[in-house]
């Protein structure tokens, strides 16, 4: 081990999660790059938690599927010819070939392995295997692809690789109602576009940046533009056990947003909203835009994450202001935050830094970092268990 790494491992972590939030020191910097801690996150957090697979409308047709990759695992979520939506491992039961490579598609109802043509229904059951009638004691039913748990919350489907994990309803009480309250046309949403960006930063660096308003008026020009569209006094960050929200009314004085003139008849006073479901599922909307955005950070390794921006809308035609907002998110605000995340990731390796302070005030005001502390506590307890 290099001297820099051993220096970083010196900080004691005993009792870290029992600190008073208002006086707490931040998670030591090694939690953002240490390989052993990253593997513990994989085993104790990601392989046991719920991950968004897609909106229900993405599985409307028979054969329609989405593939989700996570830590070397690949999961297919699809609608079968029987009409059911199921999740199963993306692997042929003959010699282990991966079945589907595309992120989304439609097999028409049957998926054929490209190696020896074993064919499966889109619920994972084996339909046919060439020459199997000539094979002694070949039981097709024994070669169904293992299923993965799948549940729905707020119009979106989630998978979980842990058969014993608590259900979505147990983990996130009230979140389904909150999604329906903020997005009344949730059932009619359709995917408009999805963009993936690989960011050289630990997944938590990205998450931390997305759950505090402290940097809003204090960082780059796009953040200041966004702050102008929000009634900042009404901005509230609320923590629940395993999920959190922040919400602010739009600033109704605003005359334009994302470079587009606003008209009160076309752009009613919509809110700024963000909901996070442990560990890495985020849904949001921006003021004056009618889309629902998904913001999912998928760890690739300890210091690299796939950032997936999804955009959904219930309207046939996407309004001009919403299109401008999506462009602004992809090309301006997103890159401004990504540049901060990359810079933080570099700084975390410095021999001159290990722990800072959470800027948490007694009122848990709009600029307080209490959600970051809450999130880190869930990470810490996810890695080490809650009994420290
Ligand atoms: S590996 Fe799939 S049919 Fe042989
Ligand atoms: Fe930001």
Automatic annotation (TrEMBL):
Assigned keywords, A-Z: 2Fe-2S, Dioxygenase, Iron, Iron-sulfur, Metal-binding, Oxidoreductase
SUPFAM superfamilies per UniProt: Bet v1-like (SSF55961), ISP domain (SSF50022)
Rieske domain sequence ranges: 50-159
Domain of life: Bacteria
GO terms assigned for molecular function: 2 iron, 2 sulfur cluster binding; dioxygenase activity; iron ion binding
Cofactor: Fe cation
Protein name, as recorded: Aromatic ring-hydroxylating dioxygenase subunit alpha
Organism: Pseudomonas nicosulfuronedens
């Amino acid at each position: 081990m290099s001297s820099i790494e051993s220096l970083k491992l010196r900080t004691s972590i005993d009792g870290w999660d029992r600190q008073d939030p208002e006086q707490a020191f931040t998670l030591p910097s090694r939690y953002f790059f240490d390989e052993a801690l990253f593997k513990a996150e994989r085993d104790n957090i990601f392989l046991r938690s719920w991950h968004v697979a897609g909106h229900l409308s993405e599985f409307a047709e028979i054969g329609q599927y989405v593939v989700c990759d996570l830590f070397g695992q690949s999961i297919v979520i699809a609608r079968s010819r029987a009409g059911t939506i199921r999740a199963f491992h993306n692997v042929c039961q003959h010699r282990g070939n991966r079945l589907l490579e595309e992120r989304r598609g439609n097999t028409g109802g049957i998926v054929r392995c490209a190696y020896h043509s074993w064919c499966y229904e889109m619920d994972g059951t084996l339909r046919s295997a060439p020459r199997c009638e000539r094979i002694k004691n070949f039981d097709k039913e024994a070669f169904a692809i293992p299923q993965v748990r799948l549940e729905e919350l707020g119009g979106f489907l989630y998978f979980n690789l842990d058969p014993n994990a608590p259900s979505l309803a147990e983990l996130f009480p009230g979140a389904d109602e909150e999604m329906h309250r903020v997005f009344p046309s949730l059932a009619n949403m359709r995917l408009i576009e999805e963009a993936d960006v690989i960011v050289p930063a630990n997944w938590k660096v990205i998450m931390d940046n997305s759950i505090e308003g402290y940097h809003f008026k204090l960082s780059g020009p796009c953040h200041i533009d966004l702050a102008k569209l929000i009634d900042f006094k009404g901005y509230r960050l609320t923590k629940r056990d395993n999920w959190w929200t922040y919400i602010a009314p739009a600033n109704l004085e605003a005359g334009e947003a994302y470079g587009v003139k606003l008209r009160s008849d076309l752009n009613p006073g919509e809110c700024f909203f963000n909901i996070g479901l442990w560990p890495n599922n985020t849904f949001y909307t921006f003021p004056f835009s009618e889309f629902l955005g998904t913001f999912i950070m998928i760890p690739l390794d300890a210091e690299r994450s796939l950032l997936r921006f999804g955009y959904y809308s219930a309207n046939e035609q996407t309004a001009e202001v919403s299109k401008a907002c999506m462009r602004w998110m992809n090309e301006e605000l997103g890159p401004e935050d990504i540049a901060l995340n990359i810079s933080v990731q570099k700084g975390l390796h410095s021999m001159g830094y290990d722990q800072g302070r959470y800027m948490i005030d007694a009122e848990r005001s709009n600029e307080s970092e209490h959600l970051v502390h809450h999130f880190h506590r869930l990470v810490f307890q996810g890695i080490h268990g809650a009994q420290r």
